[in-house]
């Protein structure tokens, strides 16, 4: 299938490095030699098997550490990664919480109807009758479905990302068409 569009946080702060897609999170050190236990954020964990390199990323501070993948193995639902330059338990512990990321060009293709968050951000949103609602400013996770944050400069609307409401996404035209329930945008 693909890297999960919801879990795969992507970002490119102004003037910083290339856009990254998170495919895992370092949850703990594993052993004494610097191995990392990683929770996969992709719905295709086998993508780790052929991973040659990655970026250990702190998106809040945009700290990026490029590393070569020396070894990968699975342990239950987790991956155990040995990365170049991470030599010892203390070095591994210092990376807990970092995202394991790849460049945007290395992200796996998504199925029809799925999008990475960065692809939607900035898209113009309008209703089926052509009324401008705003632009996608972000995406919030919820247990049932994603909520797209649509801002018009004055207000923000949370638009449930469900087929009954989001009727068209045209990334080429940077346009999203929604059919919200009556009164939803007036709340």
> What is the name of the CATH topology of the largest domain?
Elongation Factor Tu (Ef-tu), domain 3
Computed over alpha carbons, the radius of gyration is: 19 Å
Largest sheet: 6 strands, antiparallel, barrel
Question: Which H/E pattern describes the elements?
Answer: EEEEEEHEHEEEEEE
Shape: elongated
- Give the strand order of the largest sheet, numbering strands 1, 2, ... along the chain: 2-3-6-5-4-7
Mean pLDDT score: 87
CATH superfamily of the largest domain: RimM
3D architecture notes:
By secondary structure, the protein is mainly β. The chain folds into two domains: about 10-105, Elongation Factor Tu (Ef-tu), domain 3 (Beta Barrel); about 120-185, PRC-barrel domain (SH3 type barrels). The chain is built from two helices and 13 strands; from the N terminus they run E-E-E-E-E-E-H-E-H-E-E-E-E-E-E. Strands 2-3-6-5-4-7 form a six-stranded antiparallel barrel. The longest helix is centred in the middle third of the chain and has 5 residues, at about 90-95. Mean pLDDT is about 85; it is low at about 5-15.
Record the SSE blueprint:
Blueprint: E1 10-11, E2 20-30, E3 35-40, E4 53-58, E5 63-75, E6 78-83, H1 89-93, E7 99-103, H2 117-120, E8 124-127, E9 132-140, E10 147-151, E11 156-160, E12 166-170, E13 175-178
Give a quick rundown of the structure:
The chain has helices at 89-93, 117-120; strands at 10-11, 20-30, 35-40, 53-58, 63-75, 78-83, 99-103, 124-127, 132-140, 147-151, 156-160, 166-170, 175-178. It is mainly beta and 187 residues long. The strands form two sheets. A six-stranded antiparallel β-barrel has the order 2-3-6-5-4-7.
């Amino acid at each position: 299938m693909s890297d999960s569009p919801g879990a795969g946080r992507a970002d490119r702060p102004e003037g910083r490095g290339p856009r990254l897609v998170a495919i895992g999170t370092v949850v703990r050190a594993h052993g004494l030699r610097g191995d990392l236990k990683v929770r996969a954020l992709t719905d295709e964990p086998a993508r780790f098997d052929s991973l040659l390199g990655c970026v250990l990323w702190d998106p809040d501070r945009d700290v990026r550490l490029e590393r070569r993948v020396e070894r990968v193995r699975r342990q239950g639902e987790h991956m155990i990664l040995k990365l170049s330059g991470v030599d010892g338990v203390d070095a591994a512990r210092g990376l807990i919480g970092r995202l394991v990321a790849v460049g945007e060009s290395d992200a796996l293709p998504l199925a029809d109807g799925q999008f990475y968050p960065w692809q939607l951000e900035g898209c113009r949103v309008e209703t089926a009758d052509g009324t401008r609602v705003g632009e996608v400013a972000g995406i919030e996770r919820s247990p049932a479905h994603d909520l797209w944050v649509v801002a018009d400069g004055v207000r923000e609307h949370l638009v449930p990302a469900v087929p009954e409401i989001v009727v068209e996404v045209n990334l080429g035209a940077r346009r999203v068409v929604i059919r919200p329930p009556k009164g939803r945008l007036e709340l």
